[in-house]
Model the fold of this input.
Amino acid sequence: MPLRYLITGATGFLGGHVAEACAARGLPVVTIARPGSDTKLLDRLGATIRRGDITDAGVVQQAVDGADVVVHCAAKVGDAGPVEDYRGVNVEALRGLLDTCKGRPLHRFVHMSSLGVYEARHHHGTDEREPLPAQHMDGYTQSKVEAEQLALAYQREHGVPVVVLRPGFVYGPRDRNVLPKLIQRMATSKIHYLGGDRRALNTIYIGNLVDAVFLAAEQPWAVGQVYNLTDGEFVSKRRFIEAVAEAMGFKKPKQLLPRWLAGILVRLVERRVRRAGPNGKTVLTPAQFKFLLLNLDFSIEKAKRELGYRPRVGFDEGMRQTMAWYKDRGLRIED
Done:
């Protein structure tokens, strides 16, 4: 019999794509969706939907019953606010899900983390041996570190077959949050280069990430392991932003200042962002600071070696498909 997948966060970007891929493989899907959530895609796929909240133990119990593989994509995301705002979903709801999975003959528990768990600094080929910082500069990332540690603790102490995936900046069709916000800022000329034009962005196309999810669920030696995931090619911030600008017919952003002066300004911005913390008000949020100004190059050699991960879709093709989806649906840029 095919494995039955429980996908949390299936009404969202990543979870929806995983559910779609399961349906294409003939794998039955169950998920949890809050009342009022848009479940058109899941209804079309024939998924079993448990109505309720992921923080409700009874709903979680119903969803886990009969599941063979759990793919945990649900999370509270954001680029500002204290860590307490994120812990309820990202840590405590995860704890409830893991408690429900204890003692069950589960085949795999794939926990979706983020490359953001690493220290907010320049990265040049950083791999999974890098220790994670005890304290982060933003609440979302702090909660994701704590969630990772919790999931791996349940693997060690209770035998829940956890695998942790750390994707970078995920892009692709049906993203209605991150990329549309970037497009909005570009439409109003609010994106410029301040020394980050040649620095790496840790991109991963949604289709490549979905492939990695199935590899993590299938490879027996993946249990208890952590894997970095990107498209596996160098994509500069300039290349990414110019690809969006070209597809949308915008003027390409330019370097505002001479490089030497931009370098000084970047260091000043970094100092203010770090000093302000998650609750402070600065010209950039911690997430924007990392996205725009840091070099984010991470090694995916472990995923290639142990999972057999080989990104099928290159950046150019992935961006072509992504922007075609937005244009076909007439993405609205609000004033």
User: Anything to note?
Assistant: The two ends are 52 Å apart (CA to CA). The mean pLDDT is 88. The chain has twelve helices and eleven strands.
